[in-house]
Amino acid sequence: MGTMTIDLSPDELLSTTRSVRKRLDLTRPVPAELITECVEVALQAPTGSNSQGWHWLVVTDAEQRAAIGGYYKKAWYAYAEAGKPAEELYAGDDARIEQQKRVGDSARFLADYMHEVPVLVLPAIHVPGGELPAGNQAPLWGSLLPAAWSYALAARARGLGTAWTTLHLSYEKEVNELLGLPSHVFTGVLLPTAYFTGDTFKPAKREPAETFIHRDRW
Q1: In 3-state terms, what secondary structure has residue 122?
Q2: How far apart are CA 180 and CA 195, in angstroms?
Q3: pLDDT for the residue numbered 91
Q4: Residue 216 within any structural domain of the chain
Q5: Which Pfam families does the entry link to (predicted)?
Q6: What is the mean pLDDT of each run of 10 residues along the chain (218 residues)?
């Protein structure tokens, strides 16, 4: 790896790789070799039976980004209109309500400006036979999504921000056609990637681990 990475401990890297939306630098180009380095790191992730059936769509063309961004924006606004307000979802928890409002505001920003993010990365997986299994799909996506998260971590270590998004899948057929994907390849996530503004990130507020741990049984 030729690029110097940020001096972060493993725990710092894992706890400060946040979804970056408003702080994505929409004007600063991202070198292609930096994206390649992040993918190289991602390719060390595990896959079922060591199949390595992944593909990485790296979109920098302005027209392609505009088209993908258009689908994403339509999907986001439909999703937002169908959802319940934070006041209803978290009634009585003022801190959570305010947090969710901030998240919603930044998510709307990303929807409006996705087309301006300099690099859109769509990790995809080869599906034998070209049809997603009707039953358990965990082995399939388990061979892609760990690598996608490794990409996000590698990007963070190189001063880049990403956001984990999947709303483009509301227009999966259209996006696949736009990207020229063969019928046996399916995207699993859309990772807008750019340099970020500001200094750094801090861990998000979470409930204590014991809130979620079940020992030996539920």
Answers
A1: strand
A2: 28
A3: 79
A4: no
A5: Nitroreductase
A6: 86 97 97 98 96 97 98 96 77 76 90 98 95 92 97 98 98 98 97 96 93 98
Report how far apart, in Å, the C-alpha atoms of 1 and of each of 15, 82, 129, 193 are. 23, 44, 36, 19
User: DSSP letter at 20?
Assistant: P
pTM to 2 decimal places: 0.93
CB atoms within 10 A of CB 50: 7
Cβ partners under 8 Å of residue 170, min gap 6: 71, 74, 75, 78, 79
Looking at the domain assignment, is residue 136 inside a domain?
Answer: no
Query: What pLDDT, on the 0 to 100 scale, is given for residue 96?
Result: 74
Backbone angles phi, psi at 20, to 5 degrees: -105, 125
Q: Which pLDDT does position 92 carry in this prediction? A: 78
> For the chain, how many structural domains are there in total?
1
Query: Rounded CA gap, 71 and 169, in Å?
Result: 9
The CATH number covering residue 102 comes to: 3.40.109.10
* Distance from C-alpha of 69 to C-alpha of 111, rounded to nearest angstrom: 7
d(CA 38, CA 98): 34
